[in-house]
Structure formats: C-alpha cells, structure tokens
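Changelog note: in this version the structure field was regenerated for every chain. One regenerated record is shown below for reference.
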Amino acid sequence: MKKCLITLLIVVALLSTAAMANTTVTSPVSIVVNPGALSLTPIQDTPAFQNVSIPGIMNSLPYTATITPGTEPSFKLQDATGSGLGWHVNFNISPLAGPNNHKLDVNFQQTAAQLSVDAGFTSSQAVDATHGPNALALSAATVETDTEVVKTDTGYGNGTYDYATSTGCMTIPISSSQLFAGTYSGNFTATILQGPGGTGSWTGTIQ
C-alpha cells in the first residue's frame, strides 16, 4: 500500500510542473503619438515696390514697376500633424487701391522659387522632385483669387521647409491711363491648407 501511494504522488507532481512550463503571458504595450500643427510663418514679410516718378516714366509707357530686391516674400512651412495628407500653399494679392478709387493690379510669377528642408529641422522628410513639396511654375498674372503656389502630395512633406519666392516675383504694369499720383496699398495673403485639417495664414500690406 505505501509503495503505490508514493508512486502516485510523484506522477501528480510531474504533471503539475509540465503545465506551468507551457503557460504564456501577454501584456499590452502602447504609445500615444500626439499631433502638432500645420503652420506658415513669414521669414520676409514686407514685400515693397520701388517708388515711381511720373516724369521719369512718361516716355516709357506702358511701364512695369518691380518689387524691391530683397523684399520678395519667404516663409517657413511646417507640417507636424502626422496625418500624411499632404498640403499646399495659396497666394492671394489684392489690387492696390489709391486715391479717388484708382487701382493698380499686381502680377505674380514664379520661375525659380527655392524650397528646401529648414536648417533647424534636418530630419524632415526629404523634398521629392515628383511629389514635393514643390514650388509650381507660374507665368505672370494677377492672383486676386486663391492661387496654388506650392504643392505636396499625400505621404510627403512631413517636416519643416523654407520657401522663398522668385526674384522679381511681383510686378505692377502701369499704362498711360493709370498715371494718377498717390500712395497705393493692398494686401498679400498666404495660406497653407491640408486635406480636411487645419490652416494657417498670413496677411501683409504691400505698397
């Protein structure tokens, strides 16, 4: 009787140990990645035109007034949303209003704009020649309604970028019927947009 009992206890102990060795424990692991903002911050925000003298241009009409070198608009563009939706930038330049309701139109063109990863955010996604962010080529024309000037496809443009418009990007054509002296002023608005998400915009005065 004693011999049989001892054998039974040994078998039960071995079976219990084997069951413990096959147990699997699964624990949850998670991390929250919080989104940032889609933003547009001016670097150079005072576009200005060289003053015009009516006597000096009367023999050169129609005349084209040019933007003062070094005052071409430039911006820091940042997509820290983590949405991967891509983004684009629109420009809108109102006519310049002068005395007695006289107005001058502003033409905008983009031939050699510069767009690169910001030096302070070198780990940003690289600029892709096909998918952007890319500055779009634009012939000289008024942009009195929102006009796309920078485009980034879905899955690109995650980071911070510097965008500088082309040298001589803004001009004002003046004809003989527009020779009215005075100060002319208007607004230049830049807006960054992303899918259904947030927007950031800047409005400056030009004259």
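Spot check on this record: The mean pLDDT is 87. The first helix runs from residue 2 to 21.
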